Amino acid sequence: MSTTTQAPASEATDQDAFLARLREFVGLEATPTRYAQDAVNQAMIRHFVEAMGDENPVYVDDRAARDTGREGVVAPPPMLSTWLMVGYKAHTAAAAGAAPDTPMARLLALLADAGFVGVVATNDEHEYVRELRLGDEIKMTTVIEDVSPRKTTGLGTGHFITTLRTYTDQNDEVVARQRFRILRFDPSGAKPAAPAAADPALRHKPFILRDNAFWFAAAAQRRLVIQACTDCGTLRHPPGPICPSCHSYAWHEVEASGRGTVHSYVVSHHPKAPGYDYPLTVVLVDLEEGTRLVADFAGDAGEVEIGMPVQVDWLDYDENLTLPRFRAATSASEPTEEEGN
Amino acid sequence: MTSTFLSGRTAVVGIGATEFSKNSGRSELQLAVEAVSAALADAGLSPADVDGMTTFTMETNPENMVARSLGIPELKFFSRIPYGGGGACAPVQQAAMAVASGIADVVVTYRAFNERSGVRFGQGPPPAKTQATSDNEYRSWVNPYGLLTPAQHTAMFARRYMHTYGATSEDYGRVAVLARKHAANNPRAWFYGKPLTLEEHQASRWIAEPLHLFDCCQETDGGQAMVVVSAERAKDLPVTPVYIRGAAQGLGPDQYQMVSYYREDLTRIPEVELCARQLWAQSGLGPADMDAAILYDHFTPYVLNQLEEYGFCGRGEAKDFIADGNLEVTGSLPTNTHGGQIGEAYLHGTNGVAEGVRLVRGTSTNQPDGVRNVLVTAGVGVPTSALILSAEG
Q1: B156/A211 touch (CB, cutoff 8 Å), yes or no
Q2: Is residue A304 packed enough to be buried (19+ CB in 10 Å), middle (13-18) or exposed (0-12)?
Q3: Which ranges in chain B belong to alpha helices (H)?
Q4: Contacts of A270 in chain B (CB under 8 A)
């Protein structure tokens, strides 16, 4: 380890030290073991399933439950945490008074002192070992399982805290496990979200007909093709069933170089349609081969001008649709690497 | 060859419209029947006299609904024209042909919609345009990239025209300023009493560069109707006949709807030139004989193209022709004296046909002196149409 005093290294060292302090809590019981106030009972189950609209009879009908091979009525698995809830009175009292001195409280205080005062739950994973039966008496232990290194999120920087709640019965047998993750973050550092690029999947789709399907199939393979009359060789775009010059129905596709020049362009502002970023620059390109094509301009509006050389690039709209766009040609040489976005 | 058969055989004898608003508060069918009733009253005719109807394929009020609503007992002729505003003048041509051929005696042309309070054309492809048909296929080559509206489609041509001829946004803006000047003196116009300065045009927000907000026409609720009869019958009616001296449709090479981007020269509008060629041949008249013009102004740049295609000025000279004041009421070609679709109302150009009639009658609110012949055009960018309305048959 270098002893350099450069600021970034120092900052990194500070973060390492802070993380080490946070991680001293890993493995500790976050809060004292909590015991259910009531045994698993039919009355609470009935309230729950009625509220949820769950009409499965195994929760309320002893015979129906036995018909399924169970020993009697069982509790719906999603009720798991409800058996351990402390109730309104205790909840209100806890909120009003000082926080009990628990490892979790100390961990959160440490984070709060460092500015990580925001909180959001991010994950809640349940594992059910067995169904709860009437009369089960449940208790829950909560262990701090992990504290993450500092992460940068859309909400700001912070640390993820993962707790493992283990639910056991009157025989100390495990009935369920719950892994619960929160993010404690510094809301003051949250950057305003950059406007997300519009999702091209929302764009208007081309109408695929028998006469133009080949062109879009080629585009899906990132190949820019032009329809060519097999008899007289005339290129045509947009495609059609017959050569307007010699009236032949025979045609084949030829590969375009992908190079061309801007014949004209539009910078659109209003109205705004879903799937497009505005101001939206659209170019009309004279391809080297002599046909013309409309496509996106992959660059800033201020960059485009009539006559500028461009080269084809591609944009995936969705898994089935890829369409061309054009960017300023970097030189007269090979096109740049295609971008796979 | 172009026949002169149709020229002067028929006349517009009635015009009628609802008020032009942003929210009519009544059905599109009611707007249609109000407009038709007003046009018939203007002509001194009754619903029972009507035996033909023409309109747009985009019209939501079919002939049978208008006929039964008005108690029109029989229709011997009905036809519709596609391509939106490109059909502004073509239903009048249909009416003229039906009357001149003797198929029908009294044909009403109408267009009515709640285009502002209902389905707005400027918002993108209308709900019905979702079928994978040849009719919609052209959208495959523009829609995925976000060219969804007529303004966006038109901006591509406008940008190329500027590049080719050195026209500027201010050159386009002068078209809007003129329209609003005329509208300001037209009580029917939405922008009555509300002129626009070039500075205000330049400061208005971008819609699709190079088009500002005020390069785009309005969106309107309303209805407009016209009545066409034979020149002979017109003499018996209590109105000044306005003769149809020329009536043409045009669909050009490699034609698309709004996006004919694949032609060699995007500063040319061959289907407009095709209409011009026919009108001059039918009527024996030329650009110098036009005493006024109603040039379809859904977007200002296309007014410049039309001045050039009809031969009022040379290629690339329209910006100077406009700047020199030729389109003013006192100019050589008073244009869009009602305020156009920018200033009066957007009725797919049918309100422009009505203004053409008023100009020949001498009843425009911005009436130039000595108007005998008026050019009226239809939507540009799509297959289109045009008329010469005249004081002489």
Answers
A1: no
A2: buried
A3: 28-43, 63-70, 90-100, 150-165, 169-183, 198-203, 231-234, 270-283, 301-309, 318-323, 340-343, 350-361
A4: 205-208
Facing A284 at nearest CB: one of B132, B143, B261 = B261
Residue numbers in A near B152 (CB within 8 A)? 266, 268, 282
CATH number of the CATH domain containing B247: 3.40.47.10
Residue in A268, A271, A292 nearest the CB of B261: A292
Using a CB-CB cut-off of 8 Å, the residues of chain B touching A323 are 144-145
Q: Is residue A9 part of a domain?
A: no
Nearest CA-CA distance, residue B14 and chain A, Å: 38
- Structural domain that includes position B374: 10-119+218-390
Shortest distance, CA B126 to any CA of chain A (angstroms):
12
Yes or no, beta carbons of A268 and B266 under 8 Å apart: no
Query: Are the C-beta atoms of B319 and B304 separated by less than 8 Å?
Result: yes
Tell me which chain A residues have a C-beta less than 8 angstroms from the C-beta of B132: 207-209
Residues A31 and A119 in one domain: yes
Is residue B260 within 8 A of residue B381, CB to CB? The reply is yes
Residue with tokens 């020993």: A71
Q: What does the pLDDT look like over B125-150, one tens digit per residue?
A: 776 667 889 999 999 999 999 999 99
Q: Which residue of chain A comes nearest to B120, CA vs CA?
A: A271
Q: How far is CA A96 from the centre of its chain?
A: 37
Nearest CA to A238 out of A266, A265, A219 is that of A219
Burial (Cβ within 10 Å: 0-12, 13-18, ≥19) of residue B204 = middle
Domain that holds residue A279: 200-328
List the single residue in B with minimal CA-CA distance to A264: B160
Chain-chain contact of A306 with B146 (C-beta, under 8 angstroms): no
Number of structural domains chain B divides into: 1
Has residue A13 been placed in a domain? Answer: no
The dihedrals phi and psi of A136, each to the nearest 5 degrees, come to: -60, 140
Q: Catalytic residue at B346?
A: yes
Burial of A277 (0-12, 13-18, 19+ CB in 10 A): middle
Residue range B214-238: average pLDDT?
97
User: What does the CA dihedral B151, B157, B160, B165 come to, rounded to 10 degrees?
Assistant: -100
Per-residue pLDDT band for B389 (boundaries 50, 70, 90) equals very high
Q: How high is the pLDDT of residue A340?
A: 38
Answer whether residue B174 is part of any domain. Answer: no
In this complex, do B206 and A269 lie within 8 Å of one another by their Cβ atoms? yes
| DSSP H helix total and E strand total for chain A | 6, 14
If asked whether residues A305 and A210 sit together in one domain, one would say: yes
Q: What span, in angstroms and rounded, lies between the C-alpha atoms of A42 and A122? A: 32
Taking the C-alpha atoms of residue A250 and residue A254, their distance in angstroms, rounded to an integer, is: 13
Q: What is the CATH number of the domain that holds A315?
A: 2.40.50.840
B296 is catalytic: yes
- Per-residue pLDDT in tens (0 to 9) along chain A, 341 residues: 444 444 455 667 788 889 999 999 999 999 999 999 999 999 999 999 999 999 999 999 999 999 999 999 999 998 998 999 888 777 777 777 776 789 998 999 899 998 898 898 988 889 999 999 999 999 999 999 999 998 887 788 899 999 999 999 999 999 999 999 999 998 876 655 556 689 999 999 999 999 999 999 999 999 999 999 999 999 999 999 999 999 999 999 999 999 999 999 999 999 999 999 999 999 999 999 999 999 999 988 889 999 999 999 999 999 999 999 999 998 544 444 443 33
Ranking A12-21, B81-90, B171-180, B207-216 by mean pLDDT, the lowest is A12-21
By CB neighbour count within 10 A (0-12 exposed, 13-18 middle, 19+ buried), where does A317 fall? buried
